[in-house]
Amino acid sequence: MIKKADIKDLNSCIMLFKQSVKILCIKDYTQEQINAWLKIDKEKWEEKFKNNEIFVCKKEDKIVSFIGIMSDYKMLDLLFTHPNFTRQGLARNLLNFALKNYIHKEIYTFASLSAKDFFLKNGFKIVRENEVKRNDQILKNFLMKKEI
Q1: Which of 115, 134, 136 is nearest to 39 (CA)?
Q2: Residue 139 has pLDDT above 90, yes or no
Q3: pLDDT in tens, 69-90
């Protein structure tokens, strides 16, 4: 079941994000990079939940995947699935659901090395390789764009 998230879903989404990054990104990033990635600012996440469109997918009353769209910036900001629920079409379904009422003709995202292939399979194209600094660690990702 997909539904619009609210602030009470924040902690569950943060936990899911951390589990996803720890397990699904280990083949693409060093442990130091993952540790840096996991150090998040909860206040910034609260702002994301208040100011953006966040949708969650629930199974058995637990959040198993979520997506965040920053429509004003034409940006897909978050898309994470719990490691036990990958390769079941949940992220693709969330992406399609979130884009149904999306008003722009294109959307961008910064895809991790681990997520790049997912986005390529779902119609995104690489704009450029990118590097972001997190807590003294450099993480490689890709700016990607999808025409709607």
Answers
A1: 134
A2: yes
A3: 999 999 999 999 999 999 999 9
Plot region of 59 (φ>0 → left; ψ -120 to 50 → alpha; else → beta): beta
Written as six digits, the tokens of 125 are 């194209």
Between CA 72 and CA 52 the distance in angstroms is: 9
Cβ neighbours, 10 Å, residue 148: 11
Closest-CA residue to 112 (of 87, 81, 133, 143) = 143
- Predicted local distance difference test score (pLDDT) of residue 101: 86
DSSP per-residue string spanning 19-68: HHHHHHSTTTS-HHHHHHHH---HHHHHHHHHHSEEEEEEETTEEEEEEE
Helix (H) or strand (E) holding 118: helix 116-121
Contact 66, 16 (CB under 8 A): yes
Confidence of residue 7 (pLDDT cuts 50, 70, 90): very high
Contacts of 3 (CB under 8 A, 6+ apart): 55, 56, 58
Digit-coded pLDDT (tens) for 23-62 = 999 999 999 999 999 999 999 999 999 999 999 999 989 9
- From the centroid of its chain, how far is CA 137? 20
